[in-house]
Amino acid sequence: MKAASTAPELERGLPAPASLRPLVVDLSDPRAGDPSLAGAKAANLARCTAAGLPVLPGVVVTTAATARWSPGDLPPVEVLDALRRAVDVLTGRHPGPLVVRSSSTAEDAEQSSMAGRFRSILDVAGWNGVVEAVRAIRDSAVLDGAPTDSARPLAVVVQPQLAARHGGVLFGTDPVEGDERHLVVEVVAGNPSALVGGRASARHLVVSRRGRRLSSVGDGPSPGRRERRALAGLARRVERLFHGPQDVEWATGDDGRVWLLQSRPITAVAERAPTGPVVGPGPVAETFPEPLRRLEVEAWLEPLRDGITQALRATGAVSARRLASSPVALAVEGWVAVDLELLG
After folding, report:
1. CA 169, CA 90: separation in Å to the nearest integer?
2. Which residues share a beta bridge with 259?
3. What pLDDT, on the 0 to 100 scale, is given for residue 143?
4. Rounded to an integer, what distance in angstroms lies between the CA atom of residue 34 and that of residue 43?
């Protein structure tokens, strides 16, 4: 007889009890891809890391850890011990200042990104600085005026701070025009946090999905061809990974390498304006003032279309390609309409 499992809930794929959930995980740990444990922001970064995208290393203070202390209090000893071990490894490999960010289960969701709702703290140095930053991020989980026991589940991400040449945001589709053929890139000098926080204006570029510059307005650095192509490639890769266009925060280091700092769904995209010929009664309104019956449509529409086509060919008013792509004349619920742009 097979011995009974001591943890049947794990064998069946059910969530582990809270007491077994890790306090701190590395972004390369598969468990960091669980939004309930690492928050949405860190889970997205973990998925990007696993997919080989250019993500800085980091560690996550999990929701299981932050649940062990209330906003305004000190983290318990077991959390601090686990965090210090992880940070020592991280800074040993990547010395220099750190950035500490929130990763809430309420952030970066498909319905609402809540970008900027929680805190990010830059230029964090030393162990005491890390502890204070993690405490401040934990405190930000409380909504304004709400009691501390209503704090939302929150994880905290700790990463090396990139010495950015410039950075910004990258939209995998044009959110204003609703044009999926175009990408939108906004760029500021240095770290993109000022742009994300609304404290700086950026150069605004529209580029093709291969990185060709289509338009550029505003002040600030202008990425060259190689960097634009890298950004376009990054947009394509995260779109495939998350099955939809993303709002990506990015930065370029001194070595020219483009790094992904955050990726979240684009939550508001304008509907793209319809394309194609503009049709209406126009010059045939007086000839056909009422809707035609079915037999009348069959009798009159084809001769009308042929007549207009022959006249336009004879005069050379439009190209043969434009003429071939047009319906020329059609009936809409019996009403006769023509291609108004074709007829000038």
Report:
1. 26
2. 251
3. 54
4. 6
Question: pLDDT for 220-273, tens place per residue?
Answer: 899 999 999 999 999 999 999 999 999 999 999 999 999 999 999 986 554 455
Query: At what angle are helices 225-242 and 35-50 packed, to 10 degrees?
Result: 130
Q: Give the E-state strand segments of 91-143 in sequence order.
A: 98-104, 120-124
Q: What is d(CA 31, CA 217) in angstroms, rounded to the nearest whole number? A: 42
User: Over 60: is that where the pLDDT of 292 sits?
Assistant: yes
**Percentage above 70 pLDDT, the chain:** 83
Its pTM stands at: 0.71
Amino acid at 307: G
Amino acid occupying residue 218: G
Order of strands, edge to edge, in the sheet holding 335-339? 279-280, 335-339, 329-332
d(CA 192, CA 204): 14
Between CA 205 and CA 77 the distance in angstroms is 48
The 3-state DSSP composition of the chain as helix, strand, coil percent (nearest 5) reads 35, 25, 40
- Pair 203, 181: CB distance under 8 Å: no
> Tokens 């809707």, residue?
291
What is the spatial distance between Cα 181 and Cα 275, in angstroms, rounded to a whole number?
A: 13
Sequence letter at residue 76: P
**What is the residue type of 87?**
V
Element (H, E) at 98: strand 98-104
DSSP structure class, residue 78: H
**pLDDT tens profile 11-56:** 334 445 555 789 999 999 999 999 999 999 999 999 999 999 999 9
Phi and psi (nearest 5°) for 4? -70, 140
Q: In degrees rounded to 5, what are phi and psi of residue 72?
A: 95, -15
Pair of tokens at residue 343: 């007829």
